[in-house]
Give the backbone structure.
Amino acid sequence: MDVTQRFDGLQADIEQDFGEKIVALRRDIHREPELGFDTVKTAEKVLAALEGLPLDIQIRVAENGIVATLEGAGAGPTIGLRADMDALPIHEETGLPFASETDGKMHACGHDGHTSMLVGAAHALCGMRDRLNGTVKFFFQPAEEGGGGGKVMVEEGAVEGVDSIFALHLWPGLPFGTVASKAGPIMAAADSFEMEIKGTGGHGAMPHLAADAIVIAAQIVTALQTVVSREVDPVQPAVLTVGEIGAGTAFNIIPETARVAGTVRTIDPELREKIPQRMEEISQGIAGGMRANVTLNYNFSYPVTRNDPASAKLALGVATELFGETSTLEAEHPSMGGEDFAFMLEKVPGAYVWLGVGDVSGLHTPQFAFDEEILPRGSALLTALAMEALS
Ligand code: NI
């Protein structure tokens, strides 16, 4: 059987056989978003949707994650497919009939779609069990948006024995239905930091008797902008964003302390180590010169998501066969976004791919929504990835 024949009609079959189920599950998850590791109801919905399939199911992996294992008829390698299940602390403004019923929580990163697509792939692959040589493990992972559920799954040994692993992410800005990926880094290392500036409080009218934490924080924030522009090789990607700043209680009081927090994104491992050192030196210099102290807490969070070149090639090849050359793209650059699938890719060779949803509101915005036509397409892609990796 040639490859073209194998994938022929796969998306149409999935749409016909499981399309309604996938959409219903996606809406059900979307209505009830859950954050971090707290994906109890989402996991229940996934389990209900997998009911009756010939899967060996492990629950409570990384707290509320699920690993479902399909043993094919013949012997062969073990392939992992992973979806994230958690939502974000954002108040939804899509106006969708199945919008979040919880104030301040929303599936604004498409993880409801990823989870449903993986359930669709599980149905499709279970249906071809007799023809599969090897094992497919379906990973339903909590806490991608901070918390590192992927890391916990790895620490619990969930990916041990897996020979290669794949995941996808819905991608606004990429033409609808287009699959993009690349060899090597595809998502950045995503780290965070928090600084406390401790000066001397005082009366707003007597600054000479104080060490003004607000002015010092402002100087530090400005100086931090020179880390990327003056300390990093211009051809190296890096981002330093201050996302939070806080100080003060009243207009006429000089506060004793100020707090500054932000994120740093890098691709190069050496640069990832260097940036916090320069941040420390620069902020200490400024605070010291202005009679204050500063404490930098730097948190190395998610490493670079690094695709194994052979797996990325396999993924793009599968996408080309499934959807055609015009719907497949080799990405030029990584995204500076972070992704905890990185931890799985540190243990197991594999690839992370983007699936375009066109020009819709961005990820992590209150208006993020996508055309559900993408769901069977994503299921077909995951299914075909497993089929190809097993062959
Ligand atoms: Ni996401």
User: Anything to note?
Assistant: Residues 18 and 120 are 6 Å apart (CA to CA).
